[in-house]
Write a structure and sequence with these properties.
This protein has about 130 residues and is an alpha+beta fold. It is about 20% helix and about 40% strand. A 4-stranded antiparallel beta sheet has the order 3-4-5-6, with helices on one face. Strands 7-10-11 form a 3-stranded antiparallel beta sheet, with helices on one face. It is rod-shaped, with a radius of gyration of 23 Å.
Length: about 130
């Protein structure tokens, strides 16, 4: 795969949602800003809920009349992920947040992506 370029000069090193990072700039949907001096944060607002799925209740009602083993369907569990994980970048004159739906590995992915963005930011030279 060929690297995507910004303005025909700099390759995009990292893409997080609608944010792109080059070695010197962060590219947002509304413009390009210097990467030096920007700060990256992760906010995890995801929650995991467990419950008995509707199909288990239906199967229990149907099979409880045939044998008492139908009650075993009530042991079924279903995990639901609600909320979001947000990655934000703030710098001189800009602030942008990208949100991602919560999932089993979204938090770990977001923390890793923000760590990569921080390391690229730390190596970014100040623009004159």
């Amino acid at each position: 795969m060929y690297p995507v370029t910004h303005g025909g000069v700099e390759p995009v090193l990292l893409q997080i949602g609608d944010m792109s990072l080059t070695s010197t700039h962060v590219i947002l949907p509304y413009g390009s800003y210097p990467l030096h001096g920007s700060h990256w944060t992760v906010q995890d607002s995801g929650q995991v809920t467990e419950g008995i799925p509707v199909v288990a209740i239906v199967l229990t009602v149907v099979f409880v009349w045939f044998c008492l083993l139908g009650l075993l369907f009530l042991l079924m569990k279903e995990r639901r992920y609600v909320g979001f994980v947000a990655i934000s970048v703030t710098g001189p004159g800009f602030h942008h947040t990208a949100q991602f739906p919560a999932g089993p590995q979204t938090s770990a992915w977001a923390a890793h992506a923000a760590a990569q963005a921080r390391s690229i930011t730390a190596a970014a030279p100040p623009l004159a």
